[in-house]
Structures are given as structure tokens and as C-alpha cells.
Amino acid sequence: MRIPCPYCGVRDVLEFTWGGQADIARPADPAACSAEEWGAYLFIRQNPKGVHHERWCHTYGCGQWFSVWRDTLTHVIEEVDAIHTQSTRFAQSR
Amino acid sequence: MATAYYLTRNHGIRSVAVLEKGWIGGGNTGRNTAIVRSNYLTIPSIRFYDFSLCLYEGLSRELGFNIMLSQRGVVTLAFSRHQLRLMNRRVNALRHLKVDSEILTVPQIKRLLPLLSERSAAGRQIFGGFIQRRGGVIRHDAVAWGYARAADAQGVDIIQECEVTGFRKVNGAVTGVETPRGVISTTRVGLAVAGSSSILAAKLGIDLPITSMALQAMVSEPVKPVLDVVLDGALYVSQSDRGELVMGGGTDVYISYAQRSGIQRVEDNMAALIDLFPAFGRLRFMRQWAGLVDLTPDASPIIDASPIGGVCLSCGWGTYGFKAIPAGGVTFAHLLATGTSHPLARPFTLDRFRTGALIDEGGSSGMDDREPLL
């Protein structure tokens, strides 16, 4: 698998670290959270067979975190986005 | 398959159907590295996996099918003083529950593993280790075939090439299972589908704390006997009856539903193997494959009822499903038949991810080098 880092270009997956599901929001007021909400925040993750929106870090390159839409069956990377720019796909998912 | 067998044998339930998308033994039962052991850390895990190993010890006789259990001993290595200290804790926990395990000194390890290099040019050093002598390997396909044959003889319907495409529900309880070959009406469904747990649970509207990843194994060309025990540490490796070295390491470090694995782990496993056994550097490799494992955050399984009436879950078996097959079968059959958890399975609830009563076996699951999932 080769990943196109938004800062450095296409590099081998060996240079990257997987960061799991993207866009997990920490509950605004943890003290007011129910056990269900806090448990879901900590442990429940999307695990799709298909496109997954996830974080990767270019650990052995620029060191930056960014967003990737990757197919978990074929490993085809559909889109890559630096976290603070907003892709059309990101806007659609809102 | 084991669950179906124990449903008929222990509970006298005859109307059991096993739906398999592919063929029996084509999934993880036939893809693992065939290692069995019960050397875990926490009390619920030790009791559970040792019950499993005890059942394996009598399984050939029970099923009338030789599963070729070889209790040659599983040796786990420590590469730092800290690892050795944690190993001491694990050995003490095991001995406290009367499960065999002993700390090994470096000379003892050298006697068991003459080809092992104690130090490497890369700076790796062995500080000690421990052994579970009752651990070993099993002919893994024989486990699937043996259970399938015995279950079939007791009247279980084994339906292969029959994928579950959906579920029928009325008022939050299951009433049937949909397949391309028709609908099966039932009020009791057990999900035991390893890497595809999240997908089938999603069809029922259940969110699971599970991540699916590829775990790979590989086999070398056959050589004369060179490795008498199962080695666990940096990678796990044993020698098969045919003389091949069978080995595996950690999972790929990203979600994957592809039953093949990344080149990264091949390289890691090879580097670890040659570092530990420089003599194996001349071996050629014949095959390499992967299976899909369903990992939970605490590396322990979930054997529990689900929020949907009549549906029970046996999932999150991660990298330790093979050694748990008999115990997983007995406890899941108990849950499906009686509606209550087997005493050994009681701690392995789905609810523990809400209450926080986790059973952390990350260090005992053979994948302690994995990236944190959270």
C-alpha cells in the first residue's frame, strides 16, 4: 500500500502510522456523560467493509497527521486531506 | 462448529443449523498457527483458556478423530528486565490457579532451543523466559473436521456456501435469518463469525467495540527437526510434523477485510526470526496467508446476549480464537440453550465496555507490540 501524504507526496505505507477512525469528538462535558456515552466514545468504532475515514500520521516523513478515505477491502485510497482544509467529501459528510 | 456440537451433546438440542458463507474450516480455524496454551494473566482468562486446554487434552478421544495434539511446551522470551518481571507476575498468577508454568533461566532456554542466539548484533538480548509445558500445537483443520463430523452425526445441519444476508425482527426480537437460499425461521441466533462480526451485527443494528484486521502466518520449506518447542516472543514459531517452520507475528496495523496481509509484517517477522535464529536465514518460504481477526480494545472476547432479543454474540476472539474453541463452544452453547451465561463466560460481557470492567490481556495475546487501538 502506498499513501499520498498531502505534504510529501506518495510514499510507502512503512513510513506511516495508522491513527484509527477520524473525527471522534470528545464529549463536551465528560462529567455530565452517561456511562453509555462515555463507553461509546472510548470503545465503539466504525469497522466498515468498504470506505473508512481514518487518520494517518507520516511518522517517518513530515510527522503530520491527516485524513484518508481508504477502502478496507481493496486498500484503494479514494481521497486524502490535510485535517484543517476541508475537502468536498468532508463537507458532504457533515 | 464447536458451539453446534455442544448444543446437541450438552443440552440435547437437535434443531441446530450452522450457516457458513464459505466452507467448514476455510476461515480462521484453518488459517491460524495452530498454537494452544493457557498462560494468560487475569483470573477470568486463565480459568477460561485452561478449561479450553483441558477439553483439547481429551478431544481426540471424545470426537473419535485424531486432532494430533502435541504438548511440546510453549516458551515465551523476555527481552528486558521489565518483561521478565512482568513474566514473573504472570507465572505467579498462573501457579496461583494451579496452571503449570515455570520461569526459565537463559541456560535453560539455551538447552531447549540450541539454535537460539542469546544476543544479536542489533542489541537484542534475552533475559529469561517462561514455559507452559502443557502448551503446544494441534492439527488445526482436524479440530474443524472433528467437530463437524461429530455434530453432523448428532443431527446438526451444516449448510455451507450459505451467506447470511439479513435478519427478520419483530418488536426488537429476532424471528428469522435471511439467506440467498431462503429464510430460516428461528427465535435463537448465535453470531460466531470472527472478522465479519461488525458487518453482521450492523445488519441487526448493534454497534460493537471491534476492529477487524489481517493477521498473517507463513510457512518455510521443510527441514529436519530443529525446533522442539513452540517459541513465543517477537514472533511465534513452531516446527510442523512435516518439518516446515510455521510462524506469525502481530496483525497489520490498520483495519483490513482483505484476507492477505501487508508486506510490513512479512518483513518484521523475517527480521525477528533471523535475529533469534541466524541459522534460519538460509530457509526459503513456501506460503504466506492471512485471516481476519476481530479485535476488542482489551484483547478479550465477548460471549454475551445482545440488545436484540434471541441474538447472542460470540465475538472479539482476536488472535486467540483457536486455543479457545472448545471453551468458547461450551460456554456459547450454554448461553444459547439456557439464556444465562456460563460461569466461566460471565466476565466476558458486552457491558464491560460501559462499566469499565475490562479484562486486559493485551500482553498475553501474542501481539503485545501492536499499535494502541484507541
Key features of this structure:
heterodimer, A: 94 residues, alpha+beta, Folate-binding fold, 4-stranded antiparallel sheet, two-stranded antiparallel ribbon, 2 helices, globular, B: 374 residues, FAD/NAD(P)-binding domain, 8-stranded mixed sheet, 3-stranded antiparallel sheet, 28% helix, 24% strand, disordered C terminus
Q: Strand-residue fraction of chain A?
A: 35-45%
- Rg of chain A, Å, rounded: 15 Å
Number of contiguous helices of chain A: 2
User: Topology as H/E string of chain A?
Assistant: EEEHEEEH
Q: Determine the structural class of chain A based on helices, strands and strand pairing.
A: alpha+beta
**CATH architecture annotation name of chain A:** 2-Layer Sandwich
Give the CATH class of the domain at 2-67 and 139-188 and 312-355 in chain B: Alpha Beta
Could you tell me the mean pLDDT of chain B? 92
CATH topology of chain A: Folate-binding fold
Mean pLDDT of chain A, as a whole number? 89
Order of strands in the sheet with most strands of chain A: 3-4-5-6
Query: What overall form of chain A do the CA principal axes indicate?
Result: globular
The strand count of chain B comes to 18
SS summary, helix count of chain B? 10
Uncertain spans of chain A, ≥5 residues at pLDDT below 50?
A: none
Q: Which percent bin holds the helix content of chain B?
A: 25-40%
Question: What amount of the residues of chain B lies in strands?
Answer: 15-25%
Helix fraction of chain A, binned, reads 10-25%
Largest sheet of chain B: 8 strands, mixed
